[in-house]
Design a protein that fits this description.
Helix 1 runs parallel beside helix 3. This protein has two domains: 50 residues, no CATH class; 109 residues, no CATH class. The longest helix has 30 residues. It contains seven helices and no strands. The protein is elongated and about 70 Å long. Helices cover 85% and strands 0% of the residues. The termini are far apart. With 162 residues, it is an all-alpha fold.
Length: 162
């Protein structure tokens, strides 16, 4: 139980929390201590994520951008694999345009959650492009990160003016 707490919360925060619980458990008992550890881990983990902006931005850009964009491409690859003689590594233009629209929507949602996500989402877009096992046109390689950055910049500028 203590090892999990240290892993989730980090060494310094876990030592502080466990030290406080050790003192109190002398009075209340080991069962109370275990219960408090279980009840405290999730709120403290959320607090740690909020404090560490880098980890939060990485988590947001991965879950709200990278995963949906890759999921759509994997779905497209699966659909093509079910059609005889249609499995190729070239994505049609309509699929690429749909993915750009999805990416812009995901970038918008990410930028609503946290300011300054432009570079993170551009990086996530490049990771998504690198992990696609298909031949993608050059305009798509340039447009996907640029559009993500532009959407976040517009949302951040509107947030500042309002």
């Amino acid at each position: 139980m203590e090892g999990l707490t240290r892993l989730l919360l980090g060494a310094q925060l876990a030592e502080e929390i466990l030290g406080d619980l050790d003192e109190e458990s002398l009075v209340r008992g080991a069962r109370w201590r275990r219960r408090q550890i279980v009840l405290s881990v999730m709120p403290l983990l959320a607090l740690r994520v909020r404090k560490l902006h880098v980890e939060e931005r990485l988590l947001l850009s991965t879950t709200l951008f990278l995963l949906p964009v890759r999921a759509i491409d994997l779905l497209w690859a699966f659909v093509l694999s079910q059609v005889p003689l249609k499995v190729d590594l070239i994505r049609p233009t309509n699929h690429l345009i749909f993915t750009l629209i999805l990416a812009m929507a995901c970038a918008f949602v990410c930028s609503l959650h946290r300011k300054g996500m432009g570079l993170w989402l551009s990086f996530a877009a490049l990771v998504a492009l690198i992990t696609v096992p298909a031949q993608l046109p050059v305009w798509y390689w340039l447009l996907l990160p640029a559009l993500c950055f532009a959407v976040v910049t517009v949302v951040d500028s509107r947030r500042r003016t309002s």
